[in-house]
Amino acid sequence: MIRLLRRRHGLVLAAIAPITFSFQSLLVDILTETLDSFQVVLIHVPLFMICCFLLVLYARVRPPKDYKHYLWLLGSGASQSGSTCFLALALTNLSVGNTVTIFYTALVQVVFFSRIILKEQVRLFDILFAFVALGAVVFIARPPFIFGTNDHISGNDVTFQGIMFALAGSSSIAIFNVANRKLSTLGVNSYFCMFSNGTMVVFTSGVITLILQRWRWPTMHEWLFAALAGVTYVCSHFTLFYALKVETATLVTVIATTEIVYALVLQVAFLHQLPFWTSYIGTVLIIVACIGITLKNKPPPSPPPESPQSNPTDL
Questions:
Q1: What is the distance between the alpha carbons of residues 46 and 132, in angstroms, rounded to a whole number?
Q2: What is the largest CA-CA distance in the chain?
Q3: Is residue 22 within a helix (H) or strand (E), and if so which, with residue range?
Q4: Which DSSP string do the residues of 42-98 spell out, in sequence order?
Q5: Which 8-state DSSP code applies to residue 304?
Q6: CA torsion sign, 33 to 37 to 39 to 42?
Q7: pLDDT in tens, 148-192
Q8: Which residues does the UniProt record annotate as the domain EamA (predicted)?
Q9: Secondary element (H or E) of residue 114
Q10: Are the beta carbons of 175 and 249 closer than 8 angstroms?
């Protein structure tokens, strides 16, 4: 068992990432009750950027020299910023159920992006279980345009603009996973990648917050929740980045859907809200998808050593 975990440690990291992401989502959800969504991003992501900057200095990482590396870094940072911004924009036009459902179409998109961009092998089972996981999200989110309306969901919020924002956000997530997998195969230092992405997210959210003039000084409790959200953001992205260094983008993305299961547990534990019966069906489907996509899934070839511009002690 220990030997298996060592050989497939990328799977372990991919499984840890959604746990920390779910805690981050819970904290961000609490913050957005009193603060603007873009300001919430602006006050908790800088901790991630600072940690990465300190690691870059400690490891004496030098910037890459190849312009192609910067193009992929730009794509990675832009997609991470885009997913954050499009999520906020989609939620202003759609219900949470609709938004989550459309966002997780990234599960299907990443399969094809991995094949087209990274030339990674995509099995028929990968596509099958990607759709199984997507079906699980539909059961858990219960979008009104499929299940109809009830006391908790409004059926009059499906707008073309909101759908376009959500689709753009899902594409951003898929491109983000593929871009970071590509950067790992190019040997670009992970610390530098994360620092670059964090800088772009903070810059984007800061500019939008200033343009919309929605900044207000947070209270002590809000700063505390922001600090905790920052810690979980650091943990989630470190595990996600390193998982993408050793596992395929398709596998990591499908395993990430377990975040919904953890979110349901936190919902019951902290918010005392019992999930709807369809959520249990979705949970089972997610477990089936995660087991199925890892079954007989050989790890991809090890990425090359990080470029001479980077310190090989990274991670």
A1: 36
A2: 59
A3: helix 9-31
A4: HHHHHHHHHHHHHHHHHTTPPPP--HHHHHHHHHHHHHHHHHHHHHHHHHTTS-HHH
A5: P
A6: positive
A7: 655 444 444 456 777 788 888 888 988 888 888 788 778 888 788
A8: 10-141, 162-294
A9: none
A10: no
